[in-house]
Specification:
The structure holds two protein chains of two kinds.
Chain A lengths: L1 H33 L9 H8 L2 E2 L11 E3 L1 H36 L12 E3 L3 H30 L1 H4 L1 H17 L1 H14 L8 H8 L17 H25 L7 H29 L6 H6 L2 E3 H7 L1 H11 L1 H5 L3 H5 L1
Antiparallel strand pairs in A: 1-2, 3-4
Helix pairs in contact in A: 3-10, 4-6, 4-7, 4-10, 7-9, 9-10, 12-13
Chain B lengths: L1 H24 L3 H4 L13 H5 L3 H19 L1
The chains are: A mainly alpha, B mainly alpha.
Chain lengths: 337, 73
């Protein structure tokens, strides 16, 4: 029995080695492709869930660049790649659609009693200077800002990468540096027209009667009516919001963190597109929406009949101040410049 | 029209003034956010093209030297 066992043992051992070789062979052959030894180390999602951010160490002076990923970054990316596009498109295109429908339905608001041929000074040269400085800067800021949000999807396919890159670079420089005269204009507008833009009971009545735009009523108003006071408020509040949020972005990390700058960009983007939509309405009523309105900022004067229909209380104040005789002799060329 | 043109001119003047004012108090990003060893050349920055600074001159000199060396080779 012992002899038999001694004879069988090498055979069993040989078979065992053979079986092990056959079974273990394919496993070792599969190892390089089936096992990723760094899988756990680079599982970003797992790291993000556990640490709330992915960050490491670096050798450049900017330590903020060591943060590679943080949850708010994803939310912010979702905002400026998806939500801001929708908010901007609805606000701007929606306003354009509304104004088109309104123009087709109402047409231009005419001077119903006809022109008198007598001009009254409405805005001084300095007021118009401030208005146009702010307005021209605003238009360039709006177009270059819309390019930041929509340019990639709207202009890039049309212009091609080289032209779009050159245009975007120039637009970004213009966006940054034209902010200075724009903000100066907003500050001057705030102080210059503050006195005339304090809301009062006349404005409530003006709104109740449709402001002379809806229907053919001509509610009285002082120098600025309820709608113009609304525009003033939008310019001052909206201008301040885009200025502060814009400068936080323009001077990164001056008193802000990445999260603070993301919040600033959200505020800047949303306020800016709403601001643009509101200014489209302002441009509409100041040009094709109302006869004689553009002259106020173009030449500085308005026809007396226009003033009677749209700003009767202001006209009465002007008459009391300079006298009706002096008003009639006011030459428009002197008033304009 | 004259007021409008003056307003446009004033915008451009303030814009350019702001550009040069910021250039005097800010460092170009190519210098501010890179160490000496990792910096290839700050010459790419527009402001370094417009402002003749010591850094710009050294970058131009380096580029000229490299070009000369390449021609010799």
């Amino acid at each position: 029995m012992a002899k038999l066992r001694a004879r069988i043992r090498p055979v069993v051992s040989a078979m065992a080695i053979l079986v092990l070789t056959v079974v273990a062979g394919p496993i070792s052959a599969q190892q390089p492709t089936s096992v990723d030894p760094t899988a756990d180390a680079v599982n970003e999602q797992q790291l993000l869930q556990q640490l709330h951010r992915v960050q490491g160490l670096g050798s450049i002076p900017d330590t903020k660049s060591y943060v590679i990923e943080q949850p708010m970054g994803r939310e912010w990316r979702r905002f400026h790649e998806v939500w801001l596009h929708w908010i901007g498109a609805v606000a701007v295109l929606g306003m354009l659609a509304l104004l088109t429908i309104f123009y087709l339905a109402r047409g231009m608001v005419r001077i119903e009693s006809g022109r008198s041929g007598i001009n009254i000074v409405r805005f001084s040269a300095f007021e118009r200077f401030v208005h146009w400085m702010t307005a021209t800067c605003f238009i360039i800021l709006a177009l270059s800002g819309l390019n930041i949000t929509f340019g990639k999807s709207v202009l890039l396919p049309v212009m091609g990468p080289s032209a779009f890159s050159a245009w975007s670079l120039a637009a970004k420089y213009a966006h940054n540096f034209l902010s200075f005269p724009f903000v100066l204009g907003v500050i001057l507008i705030f102080f210059m027209w503050l006195g005339g833009n304090i809301p009062n009971k006349v404005d409530v009545a003006w709104f109740k009667r449709g402001g002379g735009i809806i229907g053919h009523d001509q509610p009285p108003a002082y120098r600025f009516n309820g709608g113009q006071k609304g525009v003033y408020l939008i310019v001052v509040v909206g201008g301040t919001a885009v200025a502060i949020s814009g400068y936080l972005l323009m001077f990164p990390f001056y008193g802000t963190t990445i999260a603070g700058m993301q919040l600033a960009q959200v505020v800047h983007g949303v306020v800016a597109v709403l601001f643009i939509a509101a200014m489209l309405a302002h441009i509409y009523i100041g040009t094709i929406g109302m006869e004689g309105a553009f002259e106020a900022m173009g030449k500085g004067t308005v026809d007396r009949k226009w003033a009677e229909e749209h700003h009767s209380l202001w006209l009465a104040e002007e008459k009391a101040r300079i006298g009706p005789g002096a008003m009639q002799q006011q030459p428009s060329a002197t008033a304009a410049e | 029209m004259r007021v409008f043109l003056v307003a446009c001119l004033a915008s451009v003047v303030i814009c350019i003034g702001g550009y040069f004012a910021l250039n005097t108090i800010q460092e170009p990003t190519g210098i501010a956010y890179a160490r000496e060893g990792a910096r290839i050349s700050p010459h790419w920055a527009w402001r370094s093209v417009l402002c003749a600074s010591g850094v710009n001159e050294s970058a131009t000199k380096t580029a000229t030297d490299q070009e000369r060396h390449r021609r010799k080779a």
